Amino acid sequence: DAGVIQSPRHEVTEMGQEVTLRCKPISGHNSLFWYRQTMMRGLELLIYFNNNVPIDDSGMPEDRFSAKMPNASFSTLKIQPSEPRDSAVYFCASSPPSGKLFFGSGTQLSVL
Amino acid sequence: GEDVEQSLFLSVREGDSSVINCTYTDSSSTYLYWYKQEPGAGLQLLTYIFSNMDMKQDQRLTVLLNKKDKHLSLRIADTQTGDSAIYFCADVTGGGNKLTFGTGTQLKVEL
Questions:
Q1: Residues of B with CB below 8 A from A98's CB?
Q2: How large is the average pLDDT for residues B42-58?
Q3: DSSP secondary structure, B22-62, as one string
Q4: Higher per-residue pLDDT: B109 or A42
Q5: Does residue A31 sit in helix, strand or coil?
Q6: Long-range pairs for B22-25: beta carbons < 8 A, 24 or more residues apart
Q7: Which partner for A103 in B17, B42, B81, B108 could form a disulfide, CB atoms 3.0-4.6 Å apart?
Q8: How far apart are CA A6 and CA B111, in angstroms?
Q9: Which residues 60-99 in chain B show a CB within 8 A of chain A?
Q10: pLDDT-derived band of residue A97, with 50, 70 and 90 as boundaries?
Q11: What pLDDT does A78 receive?
Q12: What mean pLDDT do residues B9-13 have?
């Protein structure tokens, strides 16, 4: 298995633009997580899905952030409009029912 | 909510043992994990321990769990330069498989 696949690997955009991050979880995993990592706040859970259904989105910073999981093999995290303070590394992770998380390589987002 | 704390930095000499500590607050934690993050990469699962265990050994890694004190540690024997990374502890809380991560400990291995 190729592991959790995230794209793009790097994204540089201007303030106000829409940003879409993509994730393909490991086949057979039933949970998917979006995390954000910054120097100031460390690793923060933004939202997670179980069987494609959002379970806990309490970590989503504000209405500018939205996440979808239209099927078991794909999820998106969208920021609209983006702001400089959104600059961070965004990780997607998936897990089987056992609870062990497997992380993607992350998307480094820079909002200028 | 759950709070997981770690010291920020640890520096050791190659060949010595490293001990990375972690404290957590949720007494209902069922699993506790150690993840490793190398520069520019995602987190990689190193090892884990069930909450009904006190110790788990996996090659150079030893995990100790003190449930009474809510203290978890990771010992790396014969630390190598390739062990330089950020180490995160995490626990499962609130049911399901939602993990709460610690702040991460930057391990630096010096020659």
A1: 97
A2: 92
A3: EEE--TT--EEEEEEE-TTS-EEEEEEEETT-SEEEETTEE
A4: B109
A5: strand
A6: B22/B71, B22/B72, B22/B73, B22/B74, B22/B89, B22/B102, B23/B69, B23/B70, B23/B71, B23/B72, B24/B70, B24/B72, B24/B89, B24/B91, B24/B100, B24/B102, B25/B70
A7: B42
A8: 35
A9: 88, 90, 92, 96-99
A10: confident
A11: 98
A12: 96
Q: Which residue of A has its CA nearest to B47?
A: A100
B44 residue type, one letter: Q
Interface check for B33 against chain A (CB to CB < 8 A): the answer is yes
| Cβ count within 10 A of residue B62 | 17
> Which residue has tokens 């150079």?
B60
Burial (Cβ within 10 Å: 0-12, 13-18, ≥19) of residue B39: exposed
Q: Scanning every residue of chain A, which has its alpha carbon at the shortest distance from the alpha carbon of B94?
A: A56
Ramachandran bin of A91, using left for φ above 0, alpha for ψ from -120 to 50, beta for the remaining angles: beta
Rounded Cα–Cα distance for residues A50 and A25 (Å): 12
| DSSP H/E element including B78 | none
pLDDT score of B40:
85
Least CB–CB distance from B31: residue in A42, A56, A99: A99
Give the tens place of pLDDT for each residue, A16-70: 999 999 999 999 999 999 999 998 888 999 999 999 999 989 899 889 999 999 9
User: Which is higher by pLDDT, B19 or B1?
Assistant: B19
Instruction: Write down the pLDDT at residue B95.
Output: 60
